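WARN no homologs supplied; continuing
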Amino acid sequence: GEKIILTVNTTPFQANPTITFSSGTVSKATVSKIDDKHVEVTGVAAGTSVITATDGTHSGTVTVTVSAAS
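OK structure emitted
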């Protein structure tokens, strides 16, 4: 599937360098950690998935939408 790179911005900048990433719906999109600030999201099937970044005590999310191939 198509791939995008997401960048994580923390405040303060180096708040916690150990960040984990997950996809709420791996049947729609998967995630692969590149480093502690970047993750590659790969579309699997049409639909949406919530991508979560967590540093142990804090988390942030983004919803990605995968469109059917044209």
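The chain is about 0% helix and 55% strand.
OK
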